[in-house]
Design a protein that fits this description.
There is one protein chain. By secondary structure, the chain is mainly alpha-helical. The protein has a single domain, classed as Hypothetical protein af1432, CATH 1.10.3210. The chain has nine helices and no strands.
Length: 182
């Protein structure tokens, strides 16, 4: 991806991600970091996973419950105005549509599996962000926190991501068990 397109993609994503929740872009940057790392390990299309990582949550500003659909719609409109080839645009959209752990969607697209795994890794890594997310947005019961952590852990299906996932999963579980016992 050329530097001009990258700047435009980042600016577009930044505008939406920061409008939703302060600190949201740090989650997106974590997803981007893990997506690029996994794309390198798996030999996947780095441009596709990077764009999808940056755009995967932009729809949260429109519809939280179906944000993957809104994110895909916004990303599609943006990408239609670029020179990104149609095949890659379709791959980006599939990555966005398939990234959620709460939706029982399947994909064969390696890049989509990478973005889903990267989203889970970013989530598991950011314990403080998880805490803010639950208390600010959901006020959910304690059991729901563990359910979300388990779903994120289960979302990681790539063998190359498992060594990264296990320590983050254990750290999140230890943190929440200790926090909720006090």
């Amino acid at each position: 991806m050329d530097s001009g397109l990258k700047r435009r993609v980042v600016a577009f994503a930044d505008r939406y991600n920061n409008a939703f929740l302060s600190g949201r872009f740090s989650h997106v940057e974590r997803v981007r970091k893990y997506a690029l790392l996994l794309a390198d390990k798996e030999g996947a299309d780095k441009d596709v996973v990077e764009i999808a990582a940056l755009f995967h949550d932009i729809g949260l500003t429109v519809d939280r419950d179906h944000h993957e659909e809104e994110s895909a719609r916004l990303a599609s409109a943006f990408l239609a105005k670029t020179d990104v080839p149609e095949r890659e645009r379709k791959m980006v959209i599939e990555c966005i549509l398939k990234h959620r752990s709460s939706k029982k969607t399947r994909t064969r697209l390696l890049e989509a599996k990478i973005v889903a795994a990267a989203d889970a890794l970013a989530f598991l890594e950011d314990i403080r962000g998880l805490q803010r997310l639950f208390y600010r947005l959901h006020g959910e019961a304690e059991a729901d926190i563990f359910d979300k952590i388990e779903r994120m852990y289960g979302k990681v299906t790539l063998p190359s991501a498992k060594p990264l996932t296990e320590p983050l999963y254990k750290k999140s579980m230890r943190y929440w068990k200790a926090k909720l016992q006090t």
